[in-house]
Amino acid sequence: MATAVLPLALSTPAWAATTTSATVVQPADGLCTVTANSVRYRTGPGTGYTALGLVYAGTLFFPDHTAPADRPKDGTTWVNGSIVQGASNVWIRQDYLSCQ
């Protein structure tokens, strides 16, 4: 029995831009890019909250613009949002994000 192989059609997401040398992901307005490696994302705004995992430089993060940034007692600022193609309703320290 022969198996047919169908080509897979892929589309470029609206937030991705291409160049002649390689595909470069550029954040659209409202998106943030993680600027460091091994950044923990958490259940709440502060290191006292559970770390759910790690993200790396270049990861896209969509902040929840309806949730205010939070500053726990240590004076750092945390942003709530969703990792693009990842976890949602998580918190990342603002100093590890570059936002448009």
Structural commentary:
There is one protein chain. With 100 residues, the protein is mostly beta strands. 0% of the residues lie in helices and 35% in strands. It contains no helices and nine strands. A five-stranded antiparallel beta sheet has the order 8-7-6-3-9, with no helix packed on it. It has a two-stranded antiparallel sheet with strand order 1-2. Strands 4-5 form a two-stranded antiparallel ribbon. A hairpin with an 8-residue loop joins β4 (39-42) and β5 (51-55). It is globular and about 30 Å long. The termini are far apart. Residues 5-27 have low confidence and may be disordered.
The end-to-end distance, rounded to whole angstroms, is: 53 Å
Secondary-structure-derived class: mainly beta
Mean pLDDT across all residues, rounded? 77
Gross geometry: globular
Number of helices: 0
Which blocks of ≥5 consecutive residues have pLDDT under 50? 5-27
Major beta sheet, strand line-up = 8-7-6-3-9
Query: How is the biggest beta sheet arranged?
Result: 5 strands, antiparallel
Give the C-alpha Rg.
17 Å
* DSSP strand tally: 9
Task: Offer a concise description of the structure.
This protein has 100 residues and is mostly beta strands. Helices cover 0% and strands 35% of the residues. The strands form three sheets. A five-stranded antiparallel β-sheet has the order 8-7-6-3-9, with no helix packed on it.
Write the layout of secondary structure elements.
Blueprint: E1 16-18, E2 23-25, E3 32-34, E4 39-42, E5 51-55, E6 60-63, E7 78-83, E8 90-93, E9 97-99
